[in-house]
Amino acid sequence: MSAAHPTPPGAADPAVSDGPAPPDALGPVASGAVGPAVPGVVGPVASGAVGPAVPGVVGPTPSGAVGPAVPEVVAAASGAVGPAAPPVVGAVGSAAGGRATAPTARTRWCPGTRLLVAVALGWLLLTALHRLLTGRWWFWLLPDLLPPVAYVLVPVLLALAVPAARLLRRPVPSRPRTVVLTAAALALGLGLPDAGLNRYALTGGRVAPPADALRVLVWNTGYWDQDDDPDAFLRFLVAQRADVYLLQEHLYWDATAGLRGARPAPDPSRLRAVFPGYTVVARGELLTLSRYPVLARPPVGPDAVLPAEADSGRVFAAAKVLRTDLAVGDRVLSAYNVHLPVQLNLAPRRFLGFVAERDAARRAQLRALEADVAANPHPVLVGGDFNTTPAMGDLRPLRDRLRDAADASAAGYPATWPDGRLPALWRLDWTLTSPAVRVHRYELRAPAGLSDHRAQQALISLPEVS
């Protein structure tokens, strides 16, 4: 219907509608209206309006119109004076009559959260690659330098960082918290078998040794007595009271000669004097000292093809496994004295080339050792400095065939290197036996400052002859 209002003097013509407006009309109301906002209208009130808006008007009210407020108007635009209408929930629409939605704030992680997530995912990736590549790719000898216990400590510390952040009143948000805890759990599951932990340390129940049990000492002497008091060195050996000694680095080293620094150690005549009744077998840097008669000394690996006239340098490089077959009563024990080449040297210019060459040399020695052990009909004991940690795949074939003597240890983490001021975080030295050999005790002995390797001492017994 038409609506007409009296126009006060000086006011503009009243606005006239073409017909009644439906409830909740969306037509704009002129900006600047003086009066309460009218429910139902989503639009600005006309600029300059002096009077109230006209009921039922769809279009804008002309400037200066005077009349009662329209009950259907919902909101007024900028400049309207009056209370807001109850039905309004969201933001006010535009002048065209549309409704706008309030923007949602995007959650942003703080730098500490981003760092924690990155470390957790990075460690999981490193652990997965380690499981795939160790023992298969020469380059992975470098990441394998990590202390094996890190495969337990790092995931545990990552998981503990979540509650620690809450204690510091910097809680980790839900989503990154789930990522960190999941990555830590997966990394722990992948890395635990390579962490070098002795799961038998707390079980006890070890069988008492028989009266004829053998005491074996396995030790990297650290260039023999080169930097030590020779008498103190011999006293240490005698004090171990071993029946069989498997000793490595029976040589001196000239540091000025670089990689060609190997020099023969003094003649072992003094050893024979302080170990009467023992047999001394030396080859290259390896020396085996036995109270039991030596039946045979079959060459193993590259040493087997070395010509008899080879000089001491070539013998040192090739002879890394010394096998001696010992007559223990009416039984035979094959003792393997081992020192694998170290895989790292910071001196050469060809750093990566050196690592690749050493990997090839290590593989040649290990394959020959594995083949010889597999073909040996006697009980075996393999001991020495393998320069190989529990995390490294190089030793897996041999460990799968033989039994780790450290299972008889009370130490939860039997690390052998370095001994001294720094904590021993790496196990480089091993004693392995065939399943028929029983290990009653395994201990690590401090070397009294004579070497940076701890000495391994094992008490073993051989199976009865059937």
From TrEMBL:
Gene3D superfamilies: Endonuclease/exonuclease/phosphatase
InterPro entries, alphabetized: Endo/exonu/phosph_ase_sf, Endo/exonuclease/phosphatase
Highest rank taxon of the organism: Bacteria
Region (Disordered): 1-28
Keyword Transferase among UniProt keywords: no
Leader sequence residues: none
Amino acid composition bias (Pro residues), ranges on this chain: 1-11
Record key words, sorted: Endonuclease, Exonuclease, Hydrolase, Membrane, Nuclease, Transmembrane, Transmembrane helix
All copies of domain Endonuclease/exonuclease/phosphatase, residue ranges: 218-453
Residue stretches spanning the membrane: 115-133, 145-168
A Pfam family recorded for this sequence: Exo_endo_phos
UniProt keyword GTP-binding, yes or no: no
One Gene Ontology term of the molecular function aspect: endonuclease activity
UniProt protein name: Metal-dependent hydrolase, endonuclease/exonuclease/phosphatase family
Organism: Micromonospora coxensis
